[in-house]
Amino acid sequence: MSTDLISQDTIVALATSPGANGAIAVIRLSGSQAIHITNSIFRGKDLREQASHTIHFGTIRDQNEIIDEVLVSLFIGPNSYTKEHVVEISTHNSKYIIERVINLLLKHGARAAQAGEFTLRAFLNGGLDLSQAEAVADLIASNSAASHQVAMQQMRGGFSNQLKGLREDLVHFASLIELELDFGEEDVEFANRDQLKSLIDHIHQVIRRLIASFEQGNVLKNGVPVVIAGKPNVGKSTLLNALLNEERAIVSEIAGTTRDTIEDEINIQGVTFRFIDTAGIRETQDIIEAKGVERTREKMKQARLIIYLFDPTQDTVVEVQQQIADVAQLSIPFVTLINKSDLLSVAQREEYAVLSPVYISAKQGAGIEELKEELLHQVNVANVQVDDVLVTNIRHLEALQKTLESLDRVFYGIDNPVTSDFLAMDIRQALYHLGEITGAVTTDDLLENIFSKFCIGK
Ligand code: GDP
């Protein structure tokens, strides 16, 4: 998709999900002719004479044939999502009706929208900045309270507002330094180096905080990859089943939801935990011990959190301590679980207390709530506030890292005999990377890359 294609065309697409069996479908148009084109197939009031943000009942006709009774919502540009005229036609949700209506609109001069084109227009017309447009996609894809919250935050401006202000301050310095260049050999300094340094220091701090938030943001957006590990027969698959079965029971309690898509995930207070390599856990353990240990290690490395299970009827405290030391070497947070607590005597419990484990009985479902609390505690999400600014997008992370690198060079340049033209170049480079996030700097390739991942109709 090239931006020069986004001309004056009026685009149309089904905005609701195709094939879903809801009662209503919404067909959306955007562009200068949106109202005019709709009006030519609509029988009811003259849409061209109606106010913005009004809804009108009428019929869609192909000559004299009535295709459907519909409601038409009007949004007169620039007071719309795309900032252009937007029309939404609510039809009955029949594949046949949708096709007929869209074909009629195409026949009367609309063009079929490409993936993400509505949101692309919103961006190009200044309704959203780039990171907000990306958040629209995240919001639509969000499937937990946490991912919804992060996307909503970003869509409402999030950190891009913060970056915009800092970028403007930096632009100011870049122009002062460029002015110095105009004076060539004369030794003039328009840009106060101390002020520049403190500005860069400030931007540095903000960006470092944003970069540090990525891990947290990513966890909230995509879920926490968890591995359940431990020797054969400690009860890993029993625990996994206990957790997942409870989750399925919860989900099926919500009336009308038939979500069989939740594979190996559980949701604890809005945060998704994804169990990885569950196939490996469920396999029968007939592999030789050494190979099993090696495989478990590889598996654990992929996790953001490890649940390590022990069977006190198999292992002594000393053996358990050795295994814990091994796991600790990976530097991945882990929860120590003593399973089969139903078989444990009080004396044995006391013996294991030095490990500060969580005691569970996977078989009887005891201790599962404590385990869940411990999982939440380990990912430290309880402390994330609704309005915390979190980076969740890898493209943003990369741009932030590149900005930091450029800023470091500027900082070095101020204190060292580096000529103003190099200094200016490094500041421009930092500005470029900052601008990549909000879309102040874009290329067709970048836009294509972002918007082609949207569905048609978004
Ligand atoms: P895995 O090899 O680690 O996946 O272990 P399994 O989940 O297959 O469990 C091994 C054996 O321990 C099975 O016979 C389970 O029924 C039993 N088991 C698992 N959890 C418990 C528990 O909490 N208490 C008792 N008594 N037995 C358990």
Automatic annotation (TrEMBL):
Which UniProt keywords are present, listed alphabetically? Answer: Cytoplasm, GTP-binding, Hydrolase, Magnesium, Metal-binding, Nucleotide-binding, Potassium, tRNA processing
Q: Which SUPFAM superfamilies match?
A: P-loop containing nucleoside triphosphate hydrolases, TrmE connector domain
Obligatory cofactor(s): K(+)
Relay the cofactor remark from the entry.
Answer: Binds 1 potassium ion per subunit.
Q: What class of enzyme is it?
A: hydrolase
Identify its protein family.
Belongs to the TRAFAC class TrmE-Era-EngA-EngB-Septin-like GTPase superfamily. TrmE GTPase family.
Q: Which HAMAP family match?
A: GTPase_MnmE
Q: Tell me the protein's name.
A: tRNA modification GTPase MnmE
- Species of origin: Sphingobacterium griseoflavum
This protein's encoding gene: mnmE
